[in-house]
Amino acid sequence: MGQTARELENNQTTQPEMNMHELHQKKQPTVMGLPIAWFAIFLLLTIVTVYTGTLPTGMIGSLLVMVVFGEALGWIGDRLPVIKSFLGGGAIVAIFGSAYMVYSGILPENVVVGVDSFMTSGGFLDFYIAALITGSILGMNSKVLMKIGVRYFIPIFGAVVGAVVIAGIVGLLVGFTLQEAILVIAMPILGGGMGAGAVPMSQVYSQFLGQPASYYISILVPALALGNVFAIVLASLLNNLGNKFPSLTGNGQLIPGFKLEETKSKLDISKMGIGLLAALVFFACGQLLGGVVPLHPYALMIILVAVAKIANLIPENVVEGASQWYQFVAKTWTLALLFGIGVAFTDLEAVLAALSLQYILLVAGVVVGAVLGAALLGRLAGFYPIESAISAGLCMANMGGTGDVAVLSAAKRMQLMPFAQIASRLGGALILLLAGLIIPLFL
After folding, report:
1. What's this model's pTM, rounded to 2 decimal places?
2. Element (H, E) at 35
3. How far is CA 57 from CA 114, 125, 260, in A?
């Protein structure tokens, strides 16, 4: 039956009013889901505690500063025209904004020490990555996991070859020797970060070349830091490239032909608790095996979670819980972690000290070479070139776990974290081995 004139009149008057209300709600700017006015109050209160010396010590104060300042810098970065489009947006502003706050002395020393301690000895970075690895792998299609397998080392190998070749060419063109271009620049950039890359690499260099390890650390760190900057910038550019040429990207999937089945489960607090427990247990098991197996605990953790997923050993409620916990952590704490990375792991002074044109060109050449090599060999191995370039290329050329978070955040592909960790950890171990083999060739 048709509607009465009164019903039609009611629809015509109330529907536009509802739409206008919804539109008004959507137009209101928010930060972290909060109305901007309320977030501004939280920001002001945090600033007052920071600069009056009343910020709580330990986890509470550090996490408060990281969340509030990280979200504020991320919100600004996502609205700056050029930075938003080409330089990684909120991710890069959160990292380098916090690094500048440390470099310039804007952030009080006690806050810097607290955040640094919370990120490193406090284990917040490990806590974050454990959630991402466990949740993303357990939530992955097991057929995709099996299909990728050892083939993933093909684009990793491509990244290494591409980076070394272009480093050699660019180095010779701008006045570096092959030894300087490959050993001092390319190898540390590809080495998996500070703890797993530059530090043990300095020991290898000291053993073969004679100078103390501290001497080589001072040379390797600027290359590592500047390479991480280029990796974040290129991650954003690759994301834009994928938006313009959809055939080059799987929008977070590594291989074509396998559409990930998104299982929608109702949010359950108790399941999230189970997911948290699963992440902690898998991380602890990785550490346990790391005591007897000569691989990085992250790499061992990835292997354990992947085997458990492929063998279907994990109950469904644990899988759902791990996935929900991963989503919560990624949505809530990514910008906080990026702020912490800027404070604890980004030496802006070392980056600025290395800024000669020749040095910049060489470092850029290494990162571009890793991208091209990973994309080309990745495509030959059946991977999407952009996903391959980001996870196997850029995540070889950044600062390990911290760089992986920054790169994947800038590329808007956090679901690639397990593969990024393979590139950083197992790829980094491969670089240490290659460094030991290559050094004698230059003696």
Report:
1. 0.70
2. strand 34-35
3. 7, 18, 43
